[in-house]
Amino acid sequence: MGARPLLNRRLAGLGTTIFAEMSALAAATGSINLGQGFPDTDGPREIAEAAAEAVLTGRGNQYPPGPGIPGLRTAIAEHQQRFYGLAYDPDSEVLVTAGATEAIAAALLALLEPGDEVIAFEPFYDSYAACIAMAGAVRVPLTLRQPSFRPDLDELRSLITPRTRLLLINTPHNPTGTVLTPAELAAIAELAVEHDLLVITDEVYEHLVFATGHHPIAGLPGMRERTVAISSAGKTFSFTGWKVGWVTASAPLVSAVRTAKQYLTYVSAGPFQYAVAEALHLPDGYFDALRADLLRKRDLLADGLSAAGFQVFSPEGTYFITTDITPLGEKDGLEFCRSLPERCGVVAIPNVVFYDNTEAGRSLVRFTFCKRDEVLREAVERLGRL
Ligand SMILES: *Cc1c(COP(=O)(O)O)cnc(C)c1O
């Protein structure tokens, strides 16, 4: 092959995701993996049985309908009504996707022209940067800075230009755990309306909010027709491998996103769609218990990290804790995370990989607490030896 690089210019620099690198390191060193955010216990037994039953009774084993099976689309619409009082038409305003990841990709590919600017909170979930790049658009970071990790709304206003097309928000926010308040959401919504911007909102941690409650921006004045709301079953039901996600939005937005989605996977996860429809109908007790359990785990890990000398930013939502390693006499999170498995048998994620302004994230390190208590206790003990 000639001198031309194989990887195209849009994807240059994206490399391998940090999760692949760190999970491989965890496996190679036998370390406790508090890097990638997946639970080490599966979701409800009866939901797993519903998936098995669907396979065995031949439901969803062949291509399901493009927008998702009707029962799941209805369950998603009912979920939005039950928890947030938002009404969506299951036929025209709901789209089932291959996880939230495909929904994000399809939405960005469908809604952006090359050169459009997308303002996204930084640190950002890694697929945002990749998908904005694949769409040929330009990402404009709004940096969430420690110790509060709250968005500076004046700065947000100052970042909007005539080329801004879209705001990409994530609440509860991975990796900082920030949950946007109703006042912050209202201010963001006002800017979106004033500048006629679209909003994509990633709400995959909607049920992992400890005290404040989750508030969808789609419910605010002027927002319904400009918001693409994205969520998925992975985090809420502890089945991250099933990859069942969804979009709720106005019919024209769903139609645009579906146009891209149908040429990405077309459809996916047939039998799991039946099981997730059941999961969305679980009683409130399920969601309350999930939250209470994770709150306890948050405090277990946060206390342990503090005792080990980390500066801990306790999250309002998600199952991640961001820490600063400066008090340990360390400066560089990437170096720290690469050496941590050897030093004490624990794997974490350096937040710097989620930043364009790398200076703002250099000394930050993320740990997940969606693991069994004994695993968290063992991790804390190991980290205490640092
Ligand atoms: C895990 C995660 C996703 C991906 O969700 P899937 O349903 O597994 O595709 C998207 N956004 C954020 C912020 C996440 O943490």
TrEMBL record:
<feature type="signal peptide">
    <location>
        <begin position="1"/>
        <end position="26"/>
    </location>
</feature>
<dbReference type="Pfam" id="PF00155">
    <property type="entry name" value="Aminotran_1_2"/>
</dbReference>
<dbReference type="InterPro" id="IPR015421">
    <property type="entry name" value="PyrdxlP-dep_Trfase_major"/>
</dbReference>
<keyword id="KW-0663">Pyridoxal phosphate</keyword>
<dbReference type="InterPro" id="IPR004839">
    <property type="entry name" value="Aminotransferase_I/II_large"/>
</dbReference>
<dbReference type="InterPro" id="IPR051326">
    <property type="entry name" value="Kynurenine-oxoglutarate_AT"/>
</dbReference>
<dbReference type="InterPro" id="IPR015424">
    <property type="entry name" value="PyrdxlP-dep_Trfase"/>
</dbReference>
<dbReference type="GO" id="GO:0008483">
    <property type="term" value="F:transaminase activity"/>
</dbReference>
<keyword id="KW-0808">Transferase</keyword>
<keyword id="KW-0732">Signal</keyword>
<protein>
    <submittedName>
        <fullName>Pyridoxal phosphate-dependent aminotransferase</fullName>
    </submittedName>
</protein>
<keyword id="KW-0032">Aminotransferase</keyword>
<dbReference type="InterPro" id="IPR015422">
    <property type="entry name" value="PyrdxlP-dep_Trfase_small"/>
</dbReference>
<feature type="domain" description="Aminotransferase class I/classII large">
    <location>
        <begin position="32"/>
        <end position="383"/>
    </location>
</feature>
